[in-house]
Amino acid sequence: MMGFITIPQIKVNDIPIYHGDSETILGLGVGHVPQSSLPIGGNNTHAVLPAHSGRVNDTLFTNLDKLKNGDVFYLHVLDLTLKYKIDDIRIVAPNQVSSLSIEKGRDLVTLVTCYPTGINNKRLLVTGERVPISKVLPQEKVQRNQFGYNFWVMLGSGLLLLLGLLYLLWLLLGSRHKLYHVADRKIEEPKLSDGQLRGEFGEGFYLTDSKKLANQWLDEQAHKKNQNPDELLINVYRLKKIKNLSRWIFKDKTENWQHYILEKQGYGDEKHALVVGPVFTSDKKVMQYALKTEEAFEHLKYIKCLNKNKSKKGGGRID
Questions:
Q1: Is 0.70 surpassed by the pTM of this model?
Q2: Is residue 25 part of a domain?
Q3: Same structural domain for residues 132 and 28?
Q4: 262 sits in which H/E element
Q5: Angle at 137 between CA 132 and CA 139, to 5 degrees
Q6: Which residue of the set 114, 272, 299, 305 is catalytic?
Q7: Could you name the active-site residues (predicted)?
């Protein structure tokens, strides 16, 4: 190890400098190009110090592109502390090395890293000229990387994790849509006898995942019973843990779905506690749920109760 480098403006603190520029060396810290001057200062010298960027565990030169002319860096070599003021920043092709030559009468150090981070088809060269250690420059206390590369990596990872959790939650609740049932009263603990209607799936307690269809059912029921629609209510429920139920679920209007409707319409179904499928009279994919056994009601959770006007507006809890 040759020494350490410190770059206050981007919070690089005492990163070790090693002899050589092999991949092994650069995996440890900052390297030194053997063909360049040793980083010990002096007139007619130009030391070149390369390091990686874009590494999550080791920041190294990741934030080198945030430095400005006038910023400084320090080399701590042997018992020396050398201070360099940046006066040249350039982006070049990997084979453009002319700016790394010694300049007569100058004491230079160039920091090198791949650029841009993650693509690495260019090289970022940040060159500083030695200045007196006692000279305090105005920009020395400026922080260039309050939100550095690691911060954005961690933020991005956190957001991806959050999106993943939200997606899993959506999948979890996707099978637990709000379901709507029309009745002449609030039914917090429904029973099979509360909904012995003869629908497309035969006798059962009918619900739908469509609030619009629920309002249509309400109008139809009011018309059949010669009631005022305002006297009827829409009870809102949610089904949970239906995997424990014997069920028949039709996701589309298939041949089996049509056969079931023709066979069961107006009749019961002793084999299934729950039947789910599209509504025959709807062009859109609107689903109806028919609960056919008392066991099925153990999985039905009451949420709230709406009247027709309130349900159209998307709210209006009555209870």
A1: no
A2: yes
A3: yes
A4: helix 255-264
A5: 140
A6: 114
A7: 52 (proton donor/acceptor), 114 (acyl-thioester intermediate)
Q: Which amino acid is at 285?
A: K
Q: Which residue has the higher pLDDT, 306 or 310?
A: 306
Beta bridge partners of 97: none
Our answer to whether residue 305 is catalytic in this structure is no
**Residue 313 contacts by C-beta under 8 Å, 6 or more apart in sequence?**
none
What is 70-110 written as a DSSP string? T-EEEEEETTEEEEEEEEEEEEE-TT--GGGS--TT-EEEE
Q: Residue 152: pLDDT above 70? A: no
Say if residue 196's pLDDT is above 70.
no
- Of the candidates 32, 52, 272, 299, the residue annotated as catalytic is 52
Rounded Cα distance between 209 and 192, Å, is 19
Q: Which of 80, 86, 81 is nearest to 64 (CA)?
A: 86
pLDDT-based confidence at residue 112 (cuts at 50, 70, 90)? very high
Catalytic-residue membership of 52: yes
**84: domain range?**
3-157
Same domain? For 33 and 114 the reply is yes
State which of 130, 157, 184 marks the end of a domain.
157
Q: Which of 84-88, 202-206, 311-315 has the lowest mean pLDDT?
A: 311-315
20 and 124, same domain (yes or no): yes
CA dihedral defined by 188, 191, 197, 200, rounded to 10 degrees?
90
Give me 13's structure tokens.
């603190």
* Rounded Cα gap, residues 89 and 71, in angstroms: 11
Assess whether 144 and 196 both reside in one domain: no
Are 55 and 92 found together in one domain?
yes
Residue type, 37: S
Three-class SS of residue 139?
helix
Please give the backbone phi and psi of residue 235, each rounded to the nearest 5 degrees, phi first. Answer: -85, 135
Cα–Cα distance measured from residue 212 to residue 312, given in angstroms and rounded to the nearest whole number: 8
pLDDT for position 90:
97
Task: Give the other-Cβ count within 10 Å of 309's Cβ.
Answer: 11
The confidence band for 237, taking pLDDT boundaries of 50, 70 and 90, is very high
